[in-house]
Specification:
This protein is an alpha/beta fold. It is about 40% helix and about 15% strand. It has a 6-stranded parallel β-sheet with strand order 8-7-9-10-6-11, with helices on both faces.
Length: about 350
């Protein structure tokens, strides 16, 4: 019997190559803004390190960044844009830094990685502040607000749908483009039953309209808000008050539009008058009226009107949430569970 001999080949185990590292250095010539650039106790630099997984060393007016090539490139552009915004006199809070970090991950969007966002052509000036885009979709939204007649803004909470619309409305009221600012919401409880509220009509509906007041006071000095409310230049009212009117020379905003019926939405949209602009904001996944999404006037209107000349639809996603980062994770967790 012949014994077969097995041949054993020598196998060479290749060690995986270590990840490539990159290094970049920035030098800033204006020491007066370095404190705001770095943040209190270097909070802004630490935020960049945590979000982009880079190491940042600051010595005087020089910053050295080390990490993966892509992360280093993003951190470098974010720091340059932060510095440029400070030189232009813009505020730089944690939210702004978070927004720049998020937008740095959009290499296909013109002006994000190149640093042009530091002096964007897209911005909204109000009496109290300058509103800069805080997400890639907000850039498109701001462009639509300046260009189209009717804009539908759809997406989850925290994406700036209503806030940016109110800022644009205040800006146009200040420069005389429109004569009136009209803010409206359907008076629908979010799952609760509040019963009868005390007081006159204004006191009854104000709790439903509080978010609109908050955005308004953030864009205008309080005394101007009160004066314009008193003389009728600014009107805040439930959608039921819109029936039978023609809203001309006005910037009109409907918030929480997912809680309208198709009949209410048709009534509201047909109020549109000469030299007006209308913004309809809502989250199609947060419908509080009986029947849910199938009975929502927002979903019905978008299905009928998307693609019509003069009407724009902007869709925000979880990635566009500009509140605290945990809000985006909460929305994502809920939407994932529902899916």
């Amino acid at each position: 019997m012949t014994r077969k001999t097995a041949r054993v080949q020598n196998v060479t185990h290749l060690k995986p190559e270590p990840p490539k590292r990159a290094r970049a250095e920035l030098e800033f010539d204006e020491p007066a803004v370095l404190g705001a650039l770095f943040g209190q106790f270097d909070a802004n630099l630490i935020l960049l390190e945590n979000r982009l997984s880079v190491y940042i060393a600051a010595r005087g007016n020089r910053i050295q960044i080390e990490g993966s090539p892509d992360a280093v490139a993003r951190a470098r552009e974010v720091l340059k844009t932060m510095h440029q915004r400070l030189l232009q006199g813009h505020e730089l809070d944690v939210g702004a830094v978070e927004a720049l970090i998020a937008m740095s991950n959009e290499p296909t969007l013109e002006g994000i990685v190149t640093g042009d966002l530091g002096s964007p052509s897209v911005m909204i000036r109000t009496r109290k502040k300058v509103i800069l885009p805080r997400s890639a979709m907000q850039i498109e939204y701001m462009k639509a607000l300046a260009r189209e007649d009717i804009i539908f803004a759809l997406g989850p909470a925290g994406t700036g749908k209503t806030y940016v619309a109110v800022a644009q409305a205040v800006s146009q009221l200040m420069n005389g483009s429109v004569q009136r600012l009209i803010l409206s919401r359907p008076a629908v409880e979010a799952g609760e039953r509040l019963g009868f509220l005390p007081g006159d009509m204004k006191e009854k509906v104000d709790p439903y309209l509080r978010p609109l007041y908050d955005a308004l006071y953030d864009c205008m000095p309080p005394e101007q808000v009160e004066r314009r409310l008193a003389n009728g230049e600014i009107e805040i009212a439930p959608i039921a008050f819109m029936r039978g009117r023609t809203l001309a020379d006005a910037f009109v905003i409907l918030d929480e539009a997912q809680n309208t019926t198709p009949a209410q939405m048709k009534m509201f949209l047909t109020r549109f008058g000469q030299n007006s602009r209308m913004v309809v904001c809502g989250d199609p996944k947060q419908v509080d009226i009986p029947g849910g999404v199938e009975h929502s006037g927002l979903a019905d209107a978008v299905k009928r009107l998307e693609g019509v000349d003069g009407i724009a639809v902007t869709r925000f996603s979880v990635a566009d949430v500009v509140r605290h980062p945990i809000v985006g994770r909460i929305v994502e967790a809920y939407e994932g569970k529902e899916a």
